[in-house]
Each structure stands twice: as C-alpha cells, then as structure tokens.
C-alpha cells in the first residue's frame, strides 16, 4: 500500500496524513475530526484525511522533522515544542496575559500571533492557525493555594520548557519535571505536590483523586499550532489549498466551543470528587511579577513585545 | 593488500577499547546522576537537567553498546539453523549476516548524517538544558560508522578463518579472539 | 507489506541479530514502497524510541544484577533458603523455587536469572541425586519469575509503550508471581514422593540465625525498591538508581566480596546487556512505526473486533496469539510491535491496561522457555549441557503450571488489579 506523503491513489483520492498528540477524548482529536469531515465533504471525497492521534507517528519533535521531510502532511504541534525551534514562541508562555480561554483563542487569530510563524524559517512548514488546548491552572495535594505567596517552596510538576521553569522559579516554587507516565504516582507519593496543567488534563489524568485543591490561575495559555508540510502544501492546487484552509477555519471556529464543553465536563467531574475550588485574581503584587518577567523576554524579542501588547489590548476590551 | 586488511583490524581494536571506556563511564555517570537528583530533592533543591542528561547517556549506552556487541558477536539472534551448518557454508552464512548489518548501517549512517546536518535540526534546542539537539543525535551517525568498521573487520576475520583450512588454525583463531580480555 | 514479512522471517532464521532483522525489514519496506521520505525520519524514530525516562531503569536493574553476583548477595540468598527449607523431602527443589522468588524481587530479567541460577542450582541438585533434566527444567521455569515479580524489564517496556504506570505494573505482578511460584511448589510436592526426592539434615538454630543475619542487608534491596515506589522520596525509576548504589555498597563494604577492580567489567557488562535490550527496543519502534504508517494496527483491531464482541473470547484469542508469538519472537520486540495494535482493542473490551499488560508479559515470559525459539531455554540447555529437545520435553509439566496461572490471571482481574488498587 501507499504510505508516506499525500499520494493520489488509483481512484484519484488524495490522502492527508494529520498527526497530533492526545487520545480520542482530547481536544486535538475532536478538532481534527471536524477538519477531516469538512475536507472530505468540501472535496466530494476527493481528499481523505487520515488521523494519527496520540503521537503514534512519533513525538512532537519527530513530527517536526517529518513535516520537514514531507512524510507527514499536517500536524498540530504544541507551543512548547515550537519554543525549542524558535524562542519567539515563548510569547505564549508570558504569564497572566489572558483572563480566560476566549482571549487566548482570540489571540490565536491575530497577526501578532501569526507573526511568530515567520521565525520558523528552517522548519519547512506552512502555518494554518492555532488550536486552543486549555488554560493552565494548578492542582495541589497540599493546601488550597489562595495567593501567589502560597507557591513558595511547592514542588510543582512542569513540562521542562525554560520559560515555564523560569516562571515558577520567579514565584519561589521548585519546578520539577516529571515524566507524564510517572506523574500519577509521583503526585501520589509526594515527589510533586502541585501540578501545573489545565482542567481537562487534570481530569483525564485523574489527578483529582490525589489533589483536592484546584486554583484557577489562568497563568499561561496552552495551545498548539497547526502546520502543513511545505512539500505537501506546494503539491496542492489552488482549489485544494482553499479547501484545506476553509476546512481548518471551520475546525478552529469550533475549537473554542469544544474546549468549553470539555472544560465544563472536567470541572463537574472534579466537583463531584470533592475538589475544592478557588481563584487567584490579578493584584498589584502579581502585576509587578508579571511585568518584570515579561520585560526580560520582550526586551530581547520584538515579536514577543508586539505579541504582549496585542494581548493586553484584547484583555482590556 | 594484507597490510591494509590488518590495518582495519588494528583500527577496529583501538576503537573497541575506546568505546568500552566510554560506555563504562556512561553507566557510572548515569547511576550517579540519578542519585544526585534524588539527594538534591531531599534537600528541596530541584535539578532540572538531570533527567535530560540521563536520557542522553541512555542513548550513548544503547548505540555504542550495540556497535560493541556487533564487534563481539554478542547480539541476540536465532542461531538454530546457523549452529547446524558446518565449514564453508557456515562461514558464508556468517559473512552474509555481516553484510546485512553492514548494509543497514551504511543506509542509517547516510540518512542520520543528513538528518543531524539539516538546518531545522541544527537550530533545535533540548527543552531543559537548551543544548543543540544535533549533539546528542550525532551518536547515531557516529555509532553506525563504528559498526561499519567493526563489520568489515569481522568479515576480514571470517575470510581469514575460511582460508586457513586446518582445524587447528581455526581453533587458534577463536582462542585468540576470545582471549583478548 | 509482503516484502516486510518475508524479509523478516528469512533474516530471522538466517541468524541475523533480531534488532537488525527489525531494522532491515523496515528499511526494505521503505525501499520497495518507494517512500524514501520515511528514511529521513527513520534515524529520529530510532533515537526517540529509547528516549523515555522509564527506560532508564533498564541499565540500573541490570547493574544491580551484576553487582549481586560479584558482591556475594546471590550466594547468601540461596544459602538462607537452603538452611530454612533443605530438610524437607525435595528440599533443594523448594530452595530452587524460593531462592528464585527472592532473586526475582531484585532482578528484572529471566535470562539473567536463568544463567545465574543454572550455574549454581543445577550442579548442587545433581550432586544431591536429582536428575539433571529435572533440575535444569525446574531452574529455568522458576527463573521465569524474574520478570514477573517486580522489578521487571518487560513491565518497564510495557509501561513505556502503553503509557501505563510502571509502578502499578510492578505492584500488579506480585500476586501472579506468587501464583506461579506456588504452582511450582505444588508440582514439586505432588511428585516428590513418587520420584523419591532426597532431603538434607535440619540446620541448627545457630546456623539459621547466622544465615538470617547475613541475608538482611541483601533483603534491603527489594525493600528499597518497594519503599521507593510507595513513598515520596523517589520515582520508580529513581528507586532503581538508589538500589544500584546500595547493592554496590553492600557487596563492597558489608560483604566485602565486591572488589573495586571488578567495577570496570561490571560497568561494561551492564552497558552491553542494556544495549542488547534497548537496541531491540529502538529498532522495534522503527518497525512498529512503519506498521502505523501503513495503518496495520487499525486493520488488525477491526479484524479482532469483527470476530466476537465477547471479552471472554477476545482474551482467549489474544492469549493464543501471544503464546504463538512468544514461541518465535523475542519478548521485547513483540511487546513494542503488539502493544500499539492490541491495547486500544483491549480497552474497547473494557480490559484494564494494567491487567492486559501483565497478561501480555506473562505470555511472552512463558515464550522464553517454549521451543523453537526461547532464549531462557537456550541458556539453560547450553549451561547444563542438555539437548533442547530433551529439556523441552521435561519442561511440559512446568509450562502446564504456568499456563494454569495464566488462565487465572486472564479471567480473574483482581489477581492483577487488587494490589495496585490499594495504592490508588
Ligand atoms: Na523481578
Ligand atoms: Na519461545
């Protein structure tokens, strides 16, 4: 059989291989499914989409290479991985820029967010937009975190992106990178006592069974970029390109409502398990921390600077 | 010609010694690295890079160790049939096996070299330590090259035993091979 | 696809190392399909296939095993069992099983344990008047407990491939391990009268105490591993690193049998034995990646679901598949190829990933002693100098015991899930 890049089979059907992380319950899968349906409908079945969820074709780092070589046609790559390719993507990790998921979602559609893609010069990819995954909050097995002073001395599990680690160190916490497969037991045994993730991640990982204290912080956005391989993109006719673009626009439009549904479910599930909720609101102290942190990154990178300004504009509307 | 062949064997012996030294150090450092991580955690200090270092070492141990076991013929294989073969046939089959390994290593060397020198990989950094990823990745072209040298040296040895017809010579060569350590 | 399958079988039986069989078959597939783009990503796949934190436990547990032998830990475990059990009829046979269970709580691989115990137990049993075939068969089948009682290398590989908790896999293996160990003990009891097994003199109380005191430090190793998993000080993987350090200190400073000048050799053996496992993992992940590109997992899953919608039938079916696969294939490679294909189907049938993993691991472990291809069988046969055919015949009742245990593990989920459930 076929395999590899988008090949046209004997019956004239072109196949797109679309890779991403997350299982069938994940927002990636649900959003990608909409894209698949749209493409297949709009093209009258002339273009088929094969989904490769759960990183079955490799890690996000590998998927980046596969996009470059053209063995994968499209992928959703999380912004943490993109920051390994271009530090400008740290823009998404600037703290407390957005009060809620809608603002993050709106940000994804701005020119300032899309300008980050210009820095991926060597990746050989054509950007098609952003998928929102969720907003980052914290879940603690120790005590309810009610102010940023409570973060001091906590062992918080993070994904080891430098900006994220830097942020938690700024707040006086001990950012601890624990492999996801070991996270549940590490949380249970107290290797970490706090998890930095979003509501759907906390719920699907069943971390609420151990940590009963949920604090809505919205401290960072968590999203991914939808990228097409240049080799694949250049092989498309103008008509096919617009089918793909339009279909992706539909998927991106619905992405936010899928998120809300998933987040509501996750919150309800956690409430049922007796998790306590609170939130940290922006105050003068927090603002000071935020401004100093952002200054450090924005002063070195024009794209981050423009990004932050736009984000503040969205936030104040 | 003979001199040239002996040269390859000589070089492969030296490389073998170097590889052995590197993997020994790597295993030792791996054990220390993870224990240090635990020790620091007890004192409430989180070391961010320790697991990344450990994973790089695991890659070193894996690929260097694999090329070493090609040199020493210690890789897991199904030898039910091979064990029943004798004389010329056995030697030929062993040479064919080495040729397969050689073929694979050449292909992987070529493509992994292209991979680590590609601009997109050259500009990628590791998540925690922020070191360029092509550095840990280069263990693959490096070890496939080693495997190529070891394979050629193995083939030369097989050809030598093949040409030395007397059983005594054959046994002697085996003793020589295993008596090295 | 046919190319991949044919080259796989031919290369395997030609005697090409298994890791290279997987690599070359993948390569040939790419070359014949003309999908050269895949080649550009192949190196990255090979590299990433082993870049997993859980996999780090493999060199660590192998190091522990190496240190145990050189440090006199193995010796003390066996002599302790001998002192306690030696005076029963068939005493040394029981000692064999129980010592293997002890060892299994420190070691993670059946092959290492078979080699270690064949060297010690088979000559000892022969000297006491047991048949060599029986001694060897008992040793190799008891050594199967190595990867079933935690820690375990196959459990680690499963945890990594299935993204399941390695700690839970370890906990889940405890009862199955005792089940198989108990089964072997019952088997010995059943035949010991008929076969007129010998027995030794009862050891004096003083000897018992002395032997017990001697073995306490050795027992601290499994204790550390268990505490490590259950307490907050370190993760399951890190517990292996701590155990490695402790085992070294015990052998060096306490038993004074481990000489520092042996360390380079131990380190090299650790690296070589690690590479043998992890290099197979790297190549198997390339092979499995090609299968995924070809959407083979989806087709197999659809096929399995189409056969029957009963979990009972599905479990029976996968046991048969695994046993057949285990007869021919290396366990590690089989694991990486099969888990991505079969685990999603198992989950659809409502089977817990931990239970599924243990069923799979026990199957593939049994495969180590079934002909025609069984590495533990080969090791035992060459170390005790018994023809494979003969040894295989003697092994039949032992394999029977393992299969009965397998049926229990398969159809009573609590056997695997009860202990993990106590810890969340
Ligand atoms: Na074990
Ligand atoms: Na077998």
From TrEMBL, chain B:
Residues that span the membrane, as ranges: 21-43, 55-81, 93-113, 133-156
Gene Ontology CC annotations of this record: plasma membrane
Molecular functions per Gene Ontology: transmembrane transporter activity
Organism encoding this protein: Niallia endozanthoxylica
Residue ranges annotated for the Tripartite ATP-independent periplasmic transporters DctQ component domain, each copy included: 37-160
Alphabetically ordered keywords of this record: Cell inner membrane, Cell membrane, Membrane, Transmembrane, Transmembrane helix, Transport
Membrane topology classification: Multi-pass membrane protein
Protein name: TRAP transporter small permease
Annotated compartments: Cell inner membrane
Record-level GO BP terms: C4-dicarboxylate transport
Pfam families membership: DctQ
Family to which the UniProt record says this protein belongs: Belongs to the TRAP transporter small permease family.
Principal cellular location given in the protein's record: membrane
Entries under InterPro entries matching the protein: DctQ (IPR055348), TRAP_DctQ (IPR007387)
Automatic annotation (TrEMBL), chain C:
Domain (TRAP C4-dicarboxylate transport system permease DctM subunit) ranges: 5-414
Coiled coil: none
Organism of origin: Niallia endozanthoxylica
Classification lineage: Bacteria, Bacillati, Bacillota, Bacilli, Bacillales
Protein name from the UniProt record: TRAP transporter large permease
Cellular compartments annotated: Cell inner membrane
Transmembrane domains' residue ranges: 47-65, 134-158, 170-191, 212-234, 240-258, 270-291, 303-325, 332-351, 357-383, 395-419
Domain of life of the source: Bacteria
PANTHER family per UniProt: SIALIC ACID TRAP TRANSPORTER PERMEASE PROTEIN SIAT-RELATED, TRAP TRANSPORTER LARGE PERMEASE PROTEIN
GO MF annotation terms: transmembrane transporter activity
One GO term describing the cellular component: plasma membrane
Membrane topology listed for this record: Multi-pass membrane protein
InterPro entries, per the entry: DctM, TRAP_DctM
Pfam families per record: DctM (PF06808)
Coarse class of the protein's main subcellular location: membrane
Keywords of the record: Cell inner membrane, Cell membrane, Membrane, Transmembrane, Transmembrane helix
């Amino acid at each position: 059989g076929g395999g590899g890049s988008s090949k046209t089979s004997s019956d004239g059907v072109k196949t797109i291989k679309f890779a991403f992380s997350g299982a069938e319950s994940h927002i990636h899968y649900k959003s990608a499914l909409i894209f698949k349906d749209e493409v297949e409908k709009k093209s009258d079945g002339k273009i088929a989409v094969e989904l490769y969820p759960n990183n079955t074709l490799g890690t996000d780092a590998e998927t980046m290479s596969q996009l470059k070589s053209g063995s994968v046609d499209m992928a959703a790559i999380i912004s943490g991985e993109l920051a390994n390719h271009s530090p400008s993507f740290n823009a998404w990790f600037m703290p407390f820029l957005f009060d809620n998921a809608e603002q993050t979602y709106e940000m994804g559609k701005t020119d300032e967010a899309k300008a980050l893609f210009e820095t991926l010069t060597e990746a050989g990819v054509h950007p098609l937009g952003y998928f929102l995954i969720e907003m980052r909050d914290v879940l603690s097995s120790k005590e309810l975190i009610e102010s940023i002073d409570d973060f001091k001395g906590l062992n918080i599990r993070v994904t080891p992106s430098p900006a994220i680690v830097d942020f938690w160190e700024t707040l006086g916490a001990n950012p601890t990178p624990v492999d996801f497969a070991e996270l549940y037991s590490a949380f249970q045994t107290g290797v970490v006592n706090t998890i930095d993730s979003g509501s759907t991640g906390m719920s699907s990982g069943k971390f609420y069974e151990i940590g009963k204290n949920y604090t809505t912080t919205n401290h960072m956005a968590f999203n991914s970029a939808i990228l097409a391989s240049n080799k694949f993109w250049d092989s498309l006719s103008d008509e096919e390109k617009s089918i793909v673009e339009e279909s992706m626009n539909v998927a991106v439009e619905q992405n936010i409502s899928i998120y809300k549904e998933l987040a509501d479910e996750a919150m309800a599930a956690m409430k049922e398990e007796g998790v306590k909720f609170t939130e940290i609101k922006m105050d003068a102290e927090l603002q000071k921390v935020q401004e100093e942190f952002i200054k450090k990154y924005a002063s070195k990178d024009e794209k981050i600077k423009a990004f932050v300004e736009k984000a503040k504009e969205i936030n104040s509307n | 010609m003979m001199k040239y062949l002996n040269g390859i064997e000589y070089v492969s012996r030296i490389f073998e010694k170097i590889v052995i030294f590197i993997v020994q150090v790597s295993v030792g450092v791996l054990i220390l690295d993870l224990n240090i991580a635990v020790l620091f955690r007890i004192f409430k200090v989180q070391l961010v890079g320790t697991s990344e270092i450990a994973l790089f070492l695991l890659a070193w141990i894996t690929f260097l160790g694999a090329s070493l076991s090609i040199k020493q013929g210690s890789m897991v294989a199904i030898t039910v049939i091979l064990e029943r073969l004798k004389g010329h046939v056995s030697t030929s089959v062993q040479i064919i096996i080495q040729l397969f390994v050689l073929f694979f290593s050449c292909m992987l060397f070529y493509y992994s070299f292209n991979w680590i020198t590609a601009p997109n990989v050259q500009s990628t950094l590791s998540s925690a330590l922020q070191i360029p990823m092509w550095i840990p990745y280069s263990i693959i072209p490096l070890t496939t090259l080693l495997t190529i040298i070891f394979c050629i040296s193995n083939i030369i040895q097989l050809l030598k035993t093949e040409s030395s017809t007397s059983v005594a010579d054959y046994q002697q060569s085996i003793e020589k091979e295993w008596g090295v350590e | 696809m046919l190319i991949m399958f044919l080259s796989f079988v031919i290369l395997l039986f030609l005697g090409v190392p298994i890791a290279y069989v997987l690599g070359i078959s993948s390569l040939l597939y790419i070359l014949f399909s003309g999908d050269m783009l895949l080649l550009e990503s192949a190196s990255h796949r090979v590299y990433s296939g082993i870049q997993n934190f859980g996999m780090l436990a493999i060199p660590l547990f192998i190091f522990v095993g190496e240190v145990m032998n050189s440090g006199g830990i193995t010796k003390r475990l066996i002599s302790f069992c001998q002192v306690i059990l030696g005076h029963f009829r068939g005493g040394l046979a029981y000692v064999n099983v129980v010592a293997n269970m002890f060892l299994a709580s420190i070691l993670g691989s059946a092959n290492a344990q078979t080699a270690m115990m064949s060297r010690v137990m088979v000559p000892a049993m022969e000297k006491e008047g047991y048949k060599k075939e029986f001694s060897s068969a008992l040793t190799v089948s008891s050594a199967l407990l190595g990867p079933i009682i935690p820690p375990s290398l196959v459990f680690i590989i499963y945890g990594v491939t299935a993204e399941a908790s390695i700690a839970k896999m370890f906990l889940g293996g405890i009862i199955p391990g005792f089940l198989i160990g108990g089964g072997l003990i019952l088997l010995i009891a059943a035949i010991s009268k008929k076969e007129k097994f010998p027995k030794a003199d009862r050891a004096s109380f003083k000897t018992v105490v002395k032997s017990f005191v001697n073995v306490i430090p050795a027992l601290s190793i499994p204790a550390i591993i268990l505490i490590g998993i259950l307490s907050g000080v370190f993760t399951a993987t890190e517990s292996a690193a701590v155990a490695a350090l402790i085992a070294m200190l015990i052998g060096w400073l306490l038993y004074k049998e481990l000489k520092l000048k042996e360390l380079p050799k131990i380190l090299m053996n650790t690296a070589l034995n690690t590479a043998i496992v992890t290099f197979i993992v790297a190549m198997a992940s390339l092979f499995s990646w090609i299968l995924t590109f070809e959407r083979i997992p989806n087709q197999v899953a659809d096929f399995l679901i189409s056969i029957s919608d009963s979990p009972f039938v599905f479990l029976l079916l996968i046991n048969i598949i695994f046993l057949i696969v285990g007869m021919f294939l290396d366990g590690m490679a089989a694991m990486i190829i099969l888990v991505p294909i079969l685990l999603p189907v198992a989950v659809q049938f409502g089977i817990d990933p931990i239970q599924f993993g243990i069923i799979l691991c026990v199957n593939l472990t049994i495969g180590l002693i079934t002909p025609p291809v069984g590495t533990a069988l080969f090791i035992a046969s060459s170390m005790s100098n018994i023809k494979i055919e003969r040894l295989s015949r003697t092994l039949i009742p032992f394999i029977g015991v393992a299969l009965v245990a397998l049926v229990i593990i398969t159809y009573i989920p609590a056997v695997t899930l009860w202990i993990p459930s106590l810890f969340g």
